[in-house]
Amino acid sequence: MPCATKSKAREVLSRIAGPLLKASPRERLKWLLLTVLFSAAAVSAEVAFYNNFRFAWDRQTLKCLDANVLLVSLKDKTPKRGAVFAYTSRQAAPVVPEGMLMGKILTGLPGDTVEVRRDNGVYVNGVKVAQGMPHLRGLKPSETDRFYGKRTLKADEYWMTGTKPLSFDSRYWGPIKGDQIYGRAYALF
């Protein structure tokens, strides 16, 4: 390091640390205690946040929700119609790997009647929640028959729907189970 740079570094350090180095032992102790206190508070806040929340980023090109970043509340897993939930995938492979975190709107609860009609409308209790089955294009009718029909959701079954026509959701792989729910998700941006 050239002498001019060392000299400049000493000057900056002296401006920053100088007042503390010139302070009395009592004032130094006060600053040390304040530093420890604020550091402990920051760590506690971080731990509390980490135990209750996670951030989730949607890296998909074709998004199912109008959000890029979600805040997921790990403590709020109580299913509620119309709310967005993050959950771990099952039965969606090979399109979505098993265990991958996904986020959709919970549109169907246990006891609800779900119907996927031949006109590609998706209904829960007679109310349309989605339209379209674009991922079935190119398949033979004998291969698509299993996607259409009517069913009543059993105990611990939840119907998840995206907001976009190309959403890969329950209309393709059926309901999720309660143990798949990771937490309620809130769109940040």
Report on the biggest sheet: 7 strands, antiparallel
What percentage of residues falls in helices of 4 or more residues?
25-40%
What is the succession of H and E elements?
A: HHEEEEEEEHEEHEE
Distance between the termini: 45 Å
Give the percentage of residues in beta strands: 25-35%
Overall description:
The chain is an alpha+beta fold. The chain contains four helices and eleven strands. The chain has helices at 3-22, 25-52, 141-144, 170-173, and strands at residues 53-57, 69-73, 84-88, 101-108, 113-116, 121-124, 127-131, 149-152, 157-161, 176-177, 181-187. It has a seven-stranded antiparallel β-sheet. Strands 7-6-5-8 form a four-stranded antiparallel β-sheet, with no helix packed on it. Strand 5 (113-116) and strand 6 form a beta hairpin. The longest helix has 28 residues, at 25-52. The chain is elongated and about 85 Å long. The mean pLDDT is 89.
Give the helix/strand layout.
Blueprint: H1 3-22, H2 25-52, E1 53-57, E2 69-73, E3 84-88, E4 101-108, E5 113-116, E6 121-124, E7 127-131, H3 141-144, E8 149-152, E9 157-161, H4 170-173, E10 176-177, E11 181-187
Antiparallel strand pairs: 1-2, 2-11, 3-4, 3-11, 4-9, 5-6, 5-8, 6-7, 9-10
List its salient traits.
189 residues, seven-stranded antiparallel sheet, four-stranded antiparallel sheet, 4 helices, 30% helix, elongated
Summarize, please.
This protein has 189 residues and is of the alpha+beta class.
